[in-house]
Amino acid sequence: MSVTSSIAIPPASSPFGNIGRNSVYGYALYQVNLMMQKNFAMPFINEESRLTFRGEFFNLFNTTNFTAPTTDFRSANFGRVGSTFDPRAVQLALRLSF
Asked: In 2-13, which positions are buried (b, 16+ CB within 10 angstroms) versus exposed (e)?
């Protein structure tokens, strides 16, 4: 017996069906983002100048996060997860202020 055989579109006389609220949900999202910044004084240019190095890490531990399953029960892919969210991304920046 397939999963879709127990699911039906409710009739017009009872449009809300009998399933409880929030009874179906997707996967949890586990993501750690980190930003680090270091300022370096540059007194040999002038007194106010500084060099800033910044690193941003999105999904630091590279955890696999799945998207929501397909909710259209008429589809052949009902209940299947088709993709994942983005993997780890690193962004580095260097800024000179004078």
From this structure: eeeeeeeeeeee
Report how far residue 64's alpha carbon sits from residue 84's, in angstroms, rounded to the nearest whole number: 7
* pLDDT classification of 68: cutoffs 50, 70, 90: confident
Cα separation, 95 vs 54, in Å, equals 8
What pLDDT, on a 0 to 100 scale, did the predictor assign at position 77?
85
Kindly report the backbone phi and psi dihedral angles of residue 4, in degrees, each rounded to the nearest multiple of 5, phi listed first.
-75, -15
CA max distance for the chain: 80
Average pLDDT over residues 55-78: 89
